[in-house]
Specification:
Beta-carbonic Anhydrase, Chain A, alpha/beta, 9 helices, globular, 6-stranded mixed sheet
């Protein structure tokens, strides 16, 4: 006599994800079915590449109110971009493909408030047991040096984190420009780059595109 199969206990996280899929199919997809179907009929032609943090609180599509096919997105700890030749890997490949194959017209490097990577730069001991993360964060060390040189004595942790996040965004923009595909597109006038700082709690994005390194908030009409 065969033993009765024992039901596996339900994975509560997987169950939550599956419920989300059901809500997407029943509530979200029907209202935007044409957009999804059009995205499959036509080859993708995103107008921008967004390089942002893997932080789960950031949703580039929602933040920019973009439809399927409009953004090419890559995410990693600290929204870092290794300078060309330093670490050949996923970020470099995404950047090259986005610029050379997809012909994106704009590259965004987006940092954010309360960034765990920036906290780790300020407290290196916190990643001592994570050698891969520690090595990866080397791509932001120059930003830490700049921030330490300019922040005011007695600055609060949130103030230091914001300054460091902004300096890191500026550094990663410099790294982006070292990639040959980007350098060529910039020289031909086919590409522009901006840096963003996203304050999650306020829903506010500040943008830097000028050489002065100043982040200007994106304002609502009348603000």
């Amino acid at each position: 006599m065969a033993l009765a199969e024992v039901e596996k206990p339900m994975d509560p996280v997987l169950a939550r994800l599956e419920n989300g899929i059901r809500r997407f199919r029943s509530e979200v997809y029907p209202a935007r079915a044409e957009a999804y179907q059009r995205a499959m009929r036509e080859a993708q032609a995103p107008h921008a590449l967004v390089i942002t943090c893997a932080d789960s609180r950031i949703h580039p599509d929602v933040l920019t109110q973009s439809s399927p096919g409009e953004l090419f997105v890559t995410r990693n700890i600290g929204n870092l971009v290794p300078a060309y030749g330093d670490m050949v890997g996923g970020v470099s490949a995404v950047l090259e493909f986005a610029v050379s194959a997809l012909k994106v017209q704009h590259v965004v490097v987006c940092g954010h408030s309360d960034c765990g990577a920036m906290k780790a730069l300020l407290d290196p001991a916190s990643v001592e047991t994570m050698p891969t993360v520690k090595h990866w964060l080397r791509n932001a060390h120059a930003a830490l040096s700049v921030a330490e040189a300019v922040w005011e004595p007695g600055a609060s942790e949130p103030e230091m984190l914001r300054l460091l996040a902004e300096k890191n965004v500026l550094l990663q923009m410099q790294h982006v420009r070292t990639h040959p595909s980007v350098a060529g597109a910039l020289a031909r006038g086919e590409l522009t780059i901006s840096g963003w700082y996203y304050d999650i709690a306020l829903g506010q994005v500040s943008v830097c595109q000028a050489e002065d390194g100043v982040f200007e908030p994106v304002l609502l009409p009348g603000e």
